[in-house]
Write a structure and sequence with these properties.
By secondary structure, the protein is an alpha/beta fold. It has four helices and three strands. Strands 1-2-3 form a three-stranded parallel sheet. It starts with a helix and ends with a helix.
């Protein structure tokens, strides 16, 4: 959820990261993944894949986070609920 952690993953040799607030919707003042994604994706600059999880409810949400810099989107809850 922040550039420092993402860059640490790059330096450690990770193949990808997951930008996720893991249920942050229940925590006061936790940013949404779409809020932090552009800065993280910019800092990563294509060196590793960026996956996003959290707040994805409809197809348009997928389009939005891909446009904000994600390489892939994880959509567990909508599939489980459907």
């Amino acid at each position: 959820m922040n550039v420092e952690s993402a860059l640490s993953a790059v330096e450690a040799g990770a193949d990808a990261i997951v930008v996720s607030n893991h249920g942050g919707r229940v925590m006061d003042h936790m940013p949404g993944t779409a809020e932090v994604l552009p800065e993280i994706a910019s800092a990563i600059a294509g060196r590793i894949k960026v996956l996003v999880d959290g707040g994805i409810r409809e197809g348009i949400d997928i389009i939005k986070v891909l446009a904000l810099g994600a390489d892939a989107v994880m959509i567990g809850r909508p599939i489980c609920i459907a």
